[in-house]
Write a structure and sequence with these properties.
The protein is α+β, with helices and mostly antiparallel strands. Helices cover 57% and strands 12% of the residues. The protein is built from eight helices and seven strands. A five-stranded antiparallel beta sheet has the order 1-6-5-4-3, with no helix packed on it. It has a two-stranded parallel ribbon with strand order 2-7. It is elongated and about 135 Å long. The N terminus is likely disordered.
Length: 484
Amino acid sequence: MKFALPAPFPLRPLACLCAALCLAGCVSPVAVRLDDAVPAHWTQSAPQAATGAAPVDMRAWWKPWGDARLDALVDEALAHNLNLAQAETRLRQQRLLAGTAGAAYRPAFSAGTRTLQDVAAVDSYFHASIDMVWDLGLFGAAAATERAAGAQLLDAAARLQAARVALVADVVHRYLDLRLAQRQSALLAGLARLDERALHLARVRLDQHLGTQEELQQWQAHAHERAAAAAQLREAQARAAHGLALLLGRSQPDPAWLQADADAALPAPGALALAELPADLLRTRADIRQAEAQVEQAAADLGLARSALYPRFQLVGSLLYSYNLTQNRRTTSDSLPLIGPMIDIPLFDWGRRRAQADASEQALQGAILAYRQSVLEGVAEVEGALAALSAQGAREQALGAAREQARGQGQLLQQRQRLGLASEWSALAGQRALLQAEGQIATARAARALAYVALYKALGGAPLPAADEAPAAGGTQGATKGSS
């Protein structure tokens, strides 16, 4: 129900309006307490760096690997990736919208002209008017609107951070897949030469009745298995190459990515050690910041729903000028000023508004629980990544010991061959086992590096937003966080 009081109006409505303004000033924003407590220490252990080593910078966690090619690829992806560019566009869009969030609660002026005829159809009048409407945004409505804009800005910044985290992790992942495929391709080429030599010797031995058909068939099976592995490896290498090109915004991959490279570098074990990994780093995760933005949005919705329970005050004004065009009567022109409050009182729909406020309260409680759930999920993901990193390190060490044993056996057979106590044929199986062990070591090292990538992705590690990309402080008004 709306009431408009033109000026001049009695003092009693004016006194009521002043009282309402005082009450509206007493309405405080919705206070929110978030539980962002994280463990003081991780339960899963991880490889520790040497004493005195500097902690890994979350802004560039991949750079301690010392791979200039990888550094260049990450920089290129950050500059040209289209998904990241879209996220940056959305952030700029929200910045523009946040700058106009309070416009609805500022005076709005309009002007218009029209021609009218009086009721008796005697005269026609030209009307020109200047109108003003000012929604005062009382009882927390204006503050809630600003808070909602801040929540949208915080969400856009968090989504940009999520895009950066995913992009860097995906680039490093694809690069590791490529380097592993290049090294494995070189090892398979060595196995192909070995299998070809073994098949030749097996046929000679069979012709000279020194070998058996089973030996020949066994080496033929090895050759078929190696050919199948090579085909699967070519597919994986092509997928990684084209996936990396997509991340870089290229239409075609670098031809060198599809070549074999026996010297393809993988991160050394020392580069995967951790000097320091405080649990507070977890709070940089983008999904936790997004959950915080959802809490802020829910708090803003609750503030708007609560403000709707109170009368809505608008200050309206108009300056009308009227000119008699036909002048059949004496009145030729006139002006009429009008100013006063307009009050919208929730009477008949108050129950619906109360239900909306109660529903918004429940939505806020759900958003607070979702925030805590995102923190716990982050803790679990980091713990899992630490466990994977430790397990892959142990696996690499075990495979390294097996490789050294195979290498020692191969050297012993070569020495026996030089002394004439063994033939070339007897050393082939050992040589093949050594090449296979080298392939397993490369796979384990790449898996360990991928676990390292997963760890920093779980921590939200990526180039952090610049100072001018941070969301406005108003987006977190009324929110407090629990200490760890």
